[in-house]
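Sample pair:
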Amino acid sequence: MITRIARRQLNMATHHQLHRAGVPTATISGRSRRGGPWQRLLPRVYLLQTGPPDTRQHALAAVLYAARPDTDPLSGATAALTGGAALALLGIRDAPPEPLDVLVRAPRSIAPAGTVRPATTSRWPATITLSGVPSTRPVRAATDFAARTDDPDLVRSVLANVVQGGWCHPDDLHAELRAGRIRGRPAVREAAAELLAGVRSIAEGRARDALTGTDLPAPLWNARLYAPDRAFLASPDAYWPEAGVALEVDSAEYHYTRDSWQATLRRRLRLEAHGVLVASTTPGILRDGTSEVVAALRALLALGTARPTPPRVTVRGHTQLELPLGPGPGRYAPKALDTV
């Protein structure tokens, strides 16, 4: 029976499971002493091996600790991993694997232990299994992460990466943030506004910050541009359709190989061949100051607006949603854009 439990639970078991399998308490204590064949990872949670636990085992140990003893901990019915740890299991960029945030189904509550941060909730979500660990869905994990993280840049980055990776839609995330009653937190509010506007990375968020305080018109973020023959051209970070001007924020992290850099140049050449004026910058330049970027954009917008021939591109399939900025629930409506 112990073998079956270990196989199901990444080579781990709870005190309750071991005792029910006929293992005396004294035996459990003896085997989990220093140098023994087992390890006590958390109160009442044991790793049935001598080697160190991996990330998945740490995550599942948190759920085993938080789950109600008389239920199947893998069911996700009484405890589930959430927050950054759940997002890290998905491989979402910048999501921290610790602390281990675990939802506990109300009315039960348990004390924190080690890096485990339990949170009792009556708003129980649908759960999924990630790498053998009962977890909340990405949209709820992202919301719980934002609720318990004070670093605004980290909140901004992780939420953007969840949406950029296709794990949830921006308005679904907005609805979940609203249901969790954390939309009013400044970092969450700003990140949600950016995602609904089309911003998909922290670098784009900084670019949006730089443009917000200027007299430049608001661009479309991550709009998809097509040639007259409907061939896809590119999806620039920001685009001004009236002037045919694009802003590209190129990070060395994504463009340092020769192939990546050449792909970036080819994308830029495609845009320029169809009349789009392209301004380029980097996250580092945006961090150091934005005056040069703003000046370049202002010049290109003036040039683009004065041209007798508009660029030969079409913006299709881009929806920009307005986030209600005032107090109260508010409403927002999609504005479908199909601009030639």
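The chain has three domains: 1-53, 56-61+71-197, 202-317.
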